[in-house]
Amino acid sequence: MSKEIAPLQDPGLPHHVHRKADTDPVAEKRAERQVSILFLLSSAGTLLFIYSFIWIPIDVFVFLPILGNTNAHQLGIGAGLGFALFFIGAGAVHWAKTLMPDEEVVAQRHEMRSSDEDRASFVETVKGEAAKVQLGRRSLIKRSLGLSLGLVGLSPLILLRDLGPLPEQSLLKTTWDKGVRIVTDPGNRPLRPEDLEVGAIVHVLPEIKDPEHRKLKDIAKDASILIRVRPSELKLSEERMSWTHEGIIAFSKICSHMGCPVALYEQTTKHLLCPCHQSTFDVPTGAKVIFGPAARPLPQLAITVDSEGYLVAAAPFNEPVGPSFWERNS
Amino acid sequence: MAPALLVIGLFLIGAIYSIAATPNNATASNAKSTLIEEGKSIFMRGCSSCHGLNAEGSGIAPSLIGVGAASVDFQVATGRMPMADMSQQAMRKKPVYSPEEIAALAAYVASLAPGPAIPTAEQLDYERDGNVAEGGELFRTNCAMCHNAAAQGGALTAGKYAPTLMGVEPVHIYEAMITGPQAMPVFGDQALTPEEKLSIIKWVKSVESEGSYGGAALGKVGPVTEGLLGWVLGLGSLIGIAVWLATKAR
């Protein structure tokens, strides 16, 4: 004889537990006080904000644990406004949780669809009103409205114009060219080989006629570095070796990964690091990538000295500087 | 007539010069050689075990021939030398030697071969010769990659680091630029002219003395501490508030 298992009974809603403030007048009074204290704290915050903004001078500093020396003016403004907003919210939440009505209400769910009559009358109204505005008769209005809406629709396309014009050759070329003098950045002073000690790094740009008005977009491509090591330390092919001058080697400063300035040079290891993503380039082997996300060595600039003994570029960069782009062919 | 006058004139000048200059020179060179002797004896006791009996260097320490007085002053007066241990790099600590001993050591090392000299107070008047705005520009191009945009220092490779420049004496900043200590490259007087070096020092000093007007600086290292604080403190307190919101009042 099998025992019949009775299905589980619907347990119904749990028994409603009243809050202390609902039953105990003392607790109710206490909750009321707590809420008003929270609101008063918010007012105090606003007063602190106003006071800091107007009366605390901007050069007063106070010592705070963890944060250290902190500007009192900014601290008062920030903390004041923070307290003001936070305690309004905290008071409202505490009020709702402890004192606002706490009855459970059953709300029936209804069908969302309107009745057939309502739907039919809506369609009728729309059609009737459309006939009344006589859009079919007033063709001038209709056409001009059509024109204006169409033109408005064009405007986003006009904004897309800012994506152009195409860079053309500008990504492939820099200001460096045969015979262009190498000058310091900033300062625009030409350099002689003897100005660089072994272990030196100099941040350089090509010499231009009007260095006061050097364009940022040119600096972004032209920025280069000169590094001097002992000539015997260079491990380069014969061609690359001819691009150096007495141990002075020049590279583009623009990282071949994302275009950050690669200028963190460790004299002891002869590594050049990019501070953005830690790509590491080995200077003696022609800035070969030895660590990090960069895929290509830094382009090397061929340098030599001119008749007056100043360092000049012997040729333009033989490849585009900086990060990869679609049209790049290497 | 004229040649005879010339000979007499030259003789007189020479005679006056030798009378006027000899005693002074002798005292100065005597004092100098005593200083060098003293420096050599300090070197023998404190430095030669690593740098060699003639400062020629060894497998564990570089040669000091030709590094100049500026290198010695920088390394010893900032406490980097003598090294406490053979870790990644020598760090700044309380100097072991007194200023007089450091001057003697510097004189000894400078006597081995010519090298950069310690800049004088006159050469270091950055308040007079420096330009803060120019210094900031130079710092961002030449120094900020390693020492951080606000000169707070930063990490290098394999445990090495570029130290913070806060609280560093102007003379030591100058010496670091002309000597290139440890991993730092050399910045010669053409790469950065003496005036430009003073501008950099003036800018560093202005960063040091200037409070942070934007509120808590959080170490001035940028998004790292700001993000840490935002995520840990900001999100942490939001989680706390969410728990409080969902708890039923009793």
Quickly describe the structure.
Chain A is α+β, with helices and mostly antiparallel strands and 330 residues long. Chain A has helices spanning 20-23, 25-55, 72-98, 116-132, 139-159, 216-222, 238-242; strands at 61-64, 68-71, 182-184, 201-206, 224-228, 248-252, 264-266, 271-273, 280-282, 288-291, 300-301, 303-305, 311-313.
Work out the strand percent of chain B: under 5%
Rg of chain B, rounded, reads 26 Å
Order of helices and strands of chain B: HHHHHHHEEHHH
* Largest sheet properties of chain B: 2 strands, antiparallel
SSE pattern of chain A: HHEEHHHEEHEHEEEEEEEE
Biggest sheet descriptor of chain A? 5 strands, antiparallel
- Major interchain interface with per-chain residue totals: A-B, 47 and 38 residues
pLDDT averaged residue by residue of chain B: 85
Mean pLDDT reading of chain A = 89
Distance between the termini of chain A: 86 Å
Computed structural class of chain B: mainly alpha
- Share of helical residues of chain B: 55-70%
Assembly state (oligomeric) = heterodimer
Q: Could you tell me the number of beta strands of chain A? A: 13
